[in-house]
Every structure is written in structure tokens, then in C-alpha cells.
Specification:
This protein is 36% helix and 26% strand. It has 108 residues and is an alpha/beta fold. Strands 1-3-2-4-5 form a 5-stranded mixed β-sheet. β2 (24-29), α2 (34-49) and β3 (55-60) form a beta-alpha-beta unit. The two termini are 24 Å apart. 33% of the residues are buried. The mean pLDDT is 93.
Length: 108
């Protein structure tokens, strides 16, 4: 993980996402997923640009399948946007930085 993204597990998901004081973008991904690898640097940049305003976190679906199931993640990359503990938006597949900026700006 980069310095601006945090890897989540079942143990810290509630605290880091559902109880977060700031909006959260959860990247459901896997190491073998090419588009997931392609979007990772974009998310790292966004984590730096929105530091303190939005939290960017990652969930490895191979290691934490129950979280993926809980949020109906069938395809990856799958970004779920949370605000005040609620899933309010979703982006499935690779997305441009501009599209993600628009979605994040809508959150904050």
C-alpha cells in the first residue's frame, strides 16, 4: 500500500469506514487484477490530494471475501463511496482520475 492508502480487514473496517469522520472511498481489489493495479496509482494521488478531507482505503477481496460479499462486490476494481457510514455511490471497473475527482467532490 502507498502512504496515502490504508489496507483494511474485517477487524478495522467498521472503525475506519463506518465510523469515519470524513467520507471514505473503499477500493475492493485483488493483486492479480490488472485494472486494479492500473487504478492504484490514481487512488494514491487522490489520497494525497484529498488528505484530511477523504480517506482512501483498500480491501483485498481474496483475503477478506466476507467484506466483498457484504457490499455485493462481484467485479473488481469496485470502488464504494461512503459518507457518514453509508454506501452512497459505486464505481465498477477502471475509471479516469477526472471521473473519480467528480465523485469525491460530490461526497465532500
Amino acid at each position: 500500500m502507498g502512504k496515502n492508502t490504508l489496507e483494511l480487514t474485517e477487524n478495522n473496517f467498521k472503525k475506519e469506514v463506518l465510523e469515519s469522520d470524513v467520507p471514505v472511498v473503499v477500493d475492493f481489489w485483488a493483486p492479480w487484477c490488472g485494472p486494479c493495479q492500473a487504478i492504484a496509482p490514481v487512488l494514491e494521488e487522490l489520497g494525497e490530494e484529498y488528505n484530511g478531507k477523504v480517506k482512501i482505503v483498500k480491501v483485498n477481496v481474496d483475503d477478506h471475501g466476507s467484506l466483498a460479499q457484504d457490499y455485493q462486490v462481484a467485479s473488481i476494481p469496485n470502488l464504494v463511496f461512503f459518507n457518514k457510514g453509508e454506501a452512497v455511490d459505486r464505481q465498477v471497473g477502471f475509471s479516469s482520475k477526472g471521473d473519480l475527482v467528480n465523485k469525491i467532490d460530490d461526497l465532500i
